[in-house]
Amino acid sequence: MSKNYIPFIFLFFLSTLMFGQKVTITPLVVNGKSVASTSPINLESVDRSSVSLSVKIDSPIPVGTEGSLSIWFTKDNAITPVVAEGGFERITNFSGGNSATISFVITLSLSSFNVSGGSISAQYKSFSGIVYKSANVSVIKNGSTPTTPPVTPPTPPTAPNFKNTLCCDQDVRYGDRPAPMIASTIDPSKVSASWLKLVGGQFPNATYKGVNYSTNKYNVLITDYLTEPGTYKRRLGNDFPFNDSNPVNIRIIPSPITSNEISIEGAKDANGFIEITNTNPKSIYGNSRSTSGQVNLNILADPYHVAQRGDTYADLDRYEWQYTKTSQNDNSEYKIWITLANENGPVLEYFTPENMSTTDDNYFLVRRIAIYKDIQRVSNVLKIIPRTVKNNNIICCDQVLTEGASSIESPSLITGSTPSIENPNGANIQILNITYQWQNQTITTNTRPNVFGSWTNINGATSKDCLPVPLQYTIVNGPRGTSQTVQTIYNYRRIATITYRTINSNGNFSDAITKSYSNETSVKSGRDYGPATLIAYPNPASSIINVEYKGADYTLSNTNITVANTLGTIVNSNNFSTVSPNIISIDVSSLPIGTYFINVDTGLGSRRNGQVTFLKSN
Question: Domains, the chain, ranges and CATH?
């Protein structure tokens, strides 16, 4: 019989816990004036009033950290209240007792209340979702309110009431990554946490927006590589007064890795990006193209040692190459860097990122990490737009013009294919219109390295084919008298804009526009570059094409030779027959009709590599 009373005893205990908690809100100071706890809050016609409050929660049983508290206001008790400015949720901490008291400083706007005023209230919500509300405290816009003798407004306690410390100050070598900054442990389900970085001499209210490599992001901060000092804090809670940790200072000291700078040939656009094309790859190289002699062991032993003749040097262990996708404006601090697999040399010959969009421009950042034992140094960052030749937008071919005594050979017409829409799904596609715009890029050759100009539209060059501008002699006065030279040569490309229609099986259709960039061709002079040293014949070819190298820098049969289609897909890799050391033949009979690129990788760097274009015919 006694067993039947057990559920009732449990329900009585539960009801006491759920309904016995009491919330009391007490106004203390309004616009610097102490007020009687039983009086309404008088805004005295002030546009924005500061109100100090004390809120107490009483529980029938001792509890620990058991919920959150917030302040609400309304201009009419029939209208749903909203959270007051400065009254956002704060974690309550009973510390094992039966009561908790939290102070708030809220701001009330005069325009938020009716002529007759309104009210404020406190709301306590347990972690189980049960809500308890205080009685309403009246708010009047103007009136005579009795006051108590002046008192000093209370200093709101730091909220939420959690221990918040951060460790530790550290010295970081230039370009290296700091050790983890470890904070006192908090439970993210109990309180929010964010990281701050010192900006302009003071801590902003906004959070640190850089990457955090930690798997425990609430309690540990691991930043990216640093090249300048920084100061960091952890903040608990979202509202004033904040609970900020002590600051941690990161100081930058010299690195024993003497330098790590990378570059790529090409002109930057207005946002600092350099374009590369998959059919004309460019190498990314550094100020040092090897790992030898890059670590000053004297600076390793003493970071403030000044490098001098006689210092001892060691070789780097390796490099790593990383990239991340970004936007045209590159305005995000948060970047996830991806390490390129099997790229550990000083030069990145081909940059081929994954997951590139086939419809929009792709914007990437590239950097190199120099590594010696447990020391790293990050390079500068290059901005790159990799372009893929698509929609059969092909132009042909490179030209090397002969220089005469007084004139230069006239360039030939650069011919272009008729673009098409790639249709892997077999949809019914109709091309409605194609427009063309040719561009050229100047290359100034009398400097080392060469200076690349920006891609510029050629006025009137809107046809399928394009006749290049003639090269011109420049008269140069030197110590041995005057001479004539070609100082400016050109690259060319074509932009095709295609308007097309896709028709589904029901006869419904949709129109779209796509833009594609062609491969690049060059027009050079013979004196600077000599006659073409890498040629392919016959061109077009139907079965066998011969590739001949007429230079002396390398042996063609010892190079890495690939054939790629206009999508950049390798269709032949080192499958050739050797006719002589510098003549090889490739069987192309099985290739579909179209345009292809023969790429010769000499292993001597991109400037020694070669490429020829050929057409596959029936």
Answer: 2-140 (2.60.40.3880), 166-253 (2.60.40.10), 262-387 (2.60.40), 393-529 (no CATH), 533-618 (2.60.40.1220)
Give the per-residue pLDDT at 353.
80
Region 355-382 average pLDDT: 89
pLDDT in tens, 321-353: 999 999 888 877 788 899 988 888 888 877 878
What whole-number distance in Å separates Cα of residue 522 and Cα of residue 207?
49
**Residue-by-residue DSSP string for 335-363:** ---EEPTT--SS-B-----SS--SSS--E
Q: 603 to each of 239, 348, 556, 561, how far by Cα in Å?
A: 60, 12, 11, 11
Compute the average pLDDT of residues 466-474: 89
DSSP 523-558: EEEHHHH-S-SEEEESSSBSSEEEEEE-SSSS-GGG
Per residue in 179-223, pLDDT tens? 999 999 888 888 888 888 887 666 666 678 788 888 888 899 999
Q: pTM (2 decimals)?
A: 0.61
* DSSP β-ladder status, 521-525 and 399-401: parallel
Structure tokens at 138: 């009246």
d(CA 525, CA 220): 60
Question: Using CB atoms within 10 A of its CB, is residue 163 exposed (0-12), middle (13-18) or buried (19+)?
Answer: exposed
CA separation for the pair 332, 96 (Å, rounded) = 44
Token duo for residue 573: 């890799």
Q: Which residue has the tokens 């374009």?
A: 275
| Mean pLDDT over each residue of the chain, to the nearest integer | 81
Beta strands 220-221 and 181-183: pairing type?
antiparallel
List phi, psi (to 5°) of 515.
Answer: -120, 135
Secondary structure of residue 460 in the 3-state scheme: coil
Residue scoring higher pLDDT (55 or 156): 55
